[in-house]
Amino acid sequence: MSDTQQNISVRRMFGREQLFTNENVITKTNIAKVLGTEIATAWAKNQTDIKYLYRYFRGNQPALYRTKEIRSDICNQVIENRAKEIVDFKVGYICGSPIQYISRDVDDRVTDSIDELNALMETEGKSTKDRELIEWQMICGTGYRLVVPSDRQDSDVPFEIYTLDPRNAFVIYSNTYQKKPLAGVFFTNTIPELGQDGTVLTTPVYEVYTETEYIKLEGDKVVKVIPHNLGMIPIIEYPANPERMGAFEAVLPLLDALNTLDCNRLDGIEQFIQSLIILYNCELPEEENATSLQAKGLIELKSKGDAKADIKILSEQLNQSETETLKADLLSAIREIAGIPAQGDGSSSDSSNNGAALTKNGWEHCETHAKAFELTFKESEIRMLKLVLRICEDMTDIDLKVRELDIHFTRRNYENLLVKSQVLTTMLSNDKIAPKLAFEASGLFTDPEGAYAESMKWYDSQKPEIPVEETTLDEPTVVVEENNNDEVSEI
């Protein structure tokens, strides 16, 4: 079996291992020891699994290397790449629209700073890099991001964001209850060397970031140390879930079974067409053989003795209806476990009840998976934002704290629009409920804070202007009173 076949043979995986060290701090003096003893084995296993999952996602799957002992000439090798379907759907559903930062409170200073931060992220192309990052998360269960101050003179953005290849990156954590990240590592390349026996040897090159230093190693030798003042590790890990499992990893056995089923169905059809021929009580002419007879398509039979000569075709066709039932069952299990909705025209749903249809087709289950993913994503995104705001504090006028903003995933929000609208209307008509609470509780808006602020701004602009009546001071009234002294008094 070739190396390619060995690499893509059927495997069972159960997530990536988190890399721990017993050291309290990582420096240039102990980084080689940590990489060589505590991390090497676990990282090698993670890297092997990630490479397998990435090849599987791209269609290099075990069914391409299947063999048959009987009728080996008929051995179809086809792939129904449902792994890519799962990943593409998850990525599109989660980050089809850019991830935005919104204010936790209506404050002009905070809102203006967040608007400027969103503009910087758009200029840096963060939405595209988010998509790349989330795709890696869905493939192999984790992703990595590097954030550094910009050194480009013509850049309008004070920071640079890079999505790292998880096949060549990892983060080392402390082996305590805190699980504090101690270093981020990126495997860059290898240095080829010619050994004494003429073989080519390679030396791995690592770039290591700690909270205070950048360390470069060639093998176990430190060749460069540069201090930095970020106060944080610029490589941040984004696990998709605590187990660090990819979106299709849990259904790998089902995906392999689906491919095997498709291959066998095609084999069955082809074997039916190329059925075996059985000859009874007859002998072929000396100049004929089975191959020549098949090529001619015509057979002349000569009886042998008193027995009547006969020819039959040995054929047995798969029951395609039963096979289709099995395939539908496999697809249903795959979609349910992976958390993607059913496909099709929805004819099996009850259109009279939109909520029931969404639940039956799996959209509500899909949304539950997406919300669980968001919680894990936000934890890593907060670490990234702390670093970005630290850089912006020194190089821009942005004055923000992470607690003043929220990370917002924009997705379609069309489920049960009528019900949500009725809830909003009912709550707004109650003078004991603050309008802001009504916007948040209705679930009608993906950004209730922004929707409330925009609505109040519009509401104030639509208020009719109350005309102000012009009033003038009355002139003093002169009253003439007759008296003995003929005096005039003014009232």
Question: What tags apply to this protein structure?
Answer:
15 strands; 3-stranded antiparallel beta sheet; alpha+beta; disordered N terminus; 491 residues; 14 helices; 2 domains; 6-stranded mixed beta sheet
In short:
With 491 residues, the protein is α+β, with helices and mostly antiparallel strands. The chain has 14 helices and 15 strands. Helix 4 packs antiparallel against helix 6, helix 7 runs antiparallel to helix 9 and helix 13 packs across helix 14.
Radius of gyration: 36 Å
Q: Outline the low-pLDDT stretches.
A: 1-6, 345-352
The assigned structural class equals: alpha+beta
Overall strand count: 15
Percent of residues in beta strands: 15-25%
Describe the 3D structure.
With 491 residues, the chain is an alpha+beta fold. The protein folds into two domains: 1-171 and 239-274 and 314-415, no CATH class; 417-467, no CATH class. 41% of the residues lie in helices and 18% in strands. The protein has 14 helices and 15 strands. It has helices spanning 3-7, 31-38, 40-57, 82-95, 108-124, 126-140, 252-273, 290-296, 320-338, 354-361, 363-395, 417-428, 435-442, 448-462; strands at residues 19-21, 100-103, 142-149, 159-164, 169-174, 181-194, 200-209, 213-218, 221-227, 235-239, 276-280, 310-314, 405-408, 478-479, 489-490. The chain has a six-stranded mixed sheet with strand order 1-5-6-7-8-9, with helices on one face. The chain has a three-stranded antiparallel sheet with strand order 4-3-10. The longest helix has 33 residues, at 363-395. The chain is flat, with a radius of gyration of 36 Å. Mean pLDDT is 80; it is low at 1-6 and 345-352.
